[in-house]
Design brief:
The complex is a heterodimer. Chain A is α+β, with helices and mostly antiparallel strands. Chain A has helices spanning 11-24, 30-48, 61-71, and strands at 4-7, 58-59, 77-81, 91-96, 102-109, 122-124. Helices cover 33% and strands 21% of the residues of chain A. Chain A has a 5-stranded mixed sheet with strand order 1-5-4-3-2. The N and C termini of chain A lie far apart (36 Å). The mean pLDDT of chain A is 85. Chain B is α+β, with helices and mostly antiparallel strands. Chain B has a domain at 55-88. Chain B is 22% helix and 17% strand. Chain B has a two-stranded antiparallel ribbon. The chains are: A alpha+beta, B alpha+beta. Strand 6 of chain A pairs antiparallel with strand 3 of chain B.
Chain lengths: 133, 90
């Protein structure tokens, strides 16, 4: 079974479109080009087989609980690696849906803006207040 | 998995009402359950680092999930667009 990969709105979508346009115009920096290629390959693998070994996809329970509560039905959130055998590898967060055979990429770590002030601030999910409706 | 009995002995509470487990029992942390009939069960536990995520990524996911719940996501990615990337060897 193959999946249709879509991007979460607004940030991941604009991040993707920005990289895509820069790639077309040949204006990506070396780091951006690396990230773009890894991201493209990983999302392609997701579309073919989300449980592919090199993605090392695994559910993040705290995020599943957080977002299932937010949207009102169970939505399992998965994390996949952008590259293999690299401890600091980038990570993709994704979930199945919104339609059948869809996969939506909802997050990327490290965040593309992590170089900016406060970008590296980490939160422990057990410490943050629950989502209020 | 079948477990093997390694040691068996009787113990007595000391003056401070403690029990000493003898020898190296393999784990540092245990979950202890004390039952009303006096039975005590200790299960080994491994401490793991709590899941951490950057604030910016969490904000990104929060907004994406708000739109996801309304069915708002991007158009599908076209993997034929940059097929040369997929043909590259890592």
């Amino acid at each position: 079974m193959t999946f249709t990969v879509k991007m979460g709105v607004p940030e991941i979508k604009s991040f993707w479109q920005n990289l895509r346009l820069k790639y077309k115009n040949n204006s990506l920096s070396k780091n951006e080009l690396n990230l773009f290629k890894k991201f493209y390959k990983a999302t392609h693998l997701l579309s073919i087989n989300p449980k592919h070994n090199s993605l090392n996809s695994h559910e993040i329970n705290v995020l599943t609980i957080r977002f299932s509560k937010k949207i009102g039905y169970k939505c399992r959130v998965w994390q996949s690696y952008l590259e293999n055998n690299t401890p600091s590898a980038g990570r993709l967060y994704w979930c199945y849906g919104p339609k059948k055979n869809d996969i939506t990429v909802i997050g990327l770590e490290p965040h593309p803006e992590n170089k900016k002030k406060d970008g590296y601030n980490k939160v422990n999910l057990s410490d943050i207040p629950p989502i209020t409706d | 998995m079948k477990t093997k009995l390694l040691k068996e002995y009787n113990v007595e509470l000391d003056k401070k009402k403690r029990i000493t487990i003898r020898g190296n029992i393999g784990f540092k942390n245990y979950h202890v359950c004390i039952f009303s009939d006096g039975k005590v069960v200790m299960e080994p536990r491994v401490l793991v680092k709590p899941f951490e995520i950057s604030e910016a990524t969490l904000r990104m996911m929060d907004s994406a999930m708000e739109n996801f719940a309304k069915g708002i996501v991007s158009e599908p990615i076209d993997f034929s667009e940059f097929s040369e990337i997929l043909e590259e060897t890592p």
